[in-house]
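Q: Hi! First time doing this. I have a protein sequence and I read that you can turn it into a structure. Is that right? Here it is:
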Amino acid sequence: MQQTTPADRTADGRTDGENDGATDGENDGENVFGLITPEDWFRIPLLPEEQREASVSALIKRQFAGVDDQPVLRRQAEEQLLGAAEAGVEQGGVVLYLSFLEAAGIPLSASLLISRIHQRFDGLDVVSAIRDKGESALVRLPAAGRAARRRRSERTRESRRLGTEFADTIVEYFVPVPDRDEVLMLTFSTPLEPIADSMVELFDAVAGTLRWQKSAQATQATRTARTTHEPRGQQG
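A: Yes, that's right. Below is the predicted 3D structure, encoded as structure tokens:
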């Protein structure tokens, strides 16, 4: 597992910081979030657009390293990733994670979209609103506290386009942002229906690492990282 904190760096060498959190990070004392993700989950900050495009380019460069004879495939992959990232922005997303984990040579495809919902959190209201589709319940995360969780299955447009018989398994967490009328939404998804339960265990483990930190502390941690750490390549 790889920790995503204000002291970590993304795959394009940029230092993670307060802008990934539930606020814009400009005011001291506001809360930002951190997660611990698997080693091979690639992190794409969605805003601003320039940063999103730079992260997608870094991912494409990594995935096609040493492959110079597939320009069409490379361009298609980049367009697909940019499309996924832009769709995440339209859903209020601030960060997108993509899984490149493998087991016995088989890709364990998954994604995590972190979004902001600008409304007050009421656990019972949230569960009532989401219970019409899937299994929903109030839960408590170890560090972040109370949250609402839903697991559901959905035949996505992409799965229908590819003609697959499997539905995507989706796990959503709705977590109140401390001291704000705002909710952080974690949307995990995988098309691997035959091993969905194992993937859901991984999703729950990642969600369980969510924690909050004051932006002033996050800024200091970032400054410390810049003076004590060299760029380390891929980070979750």
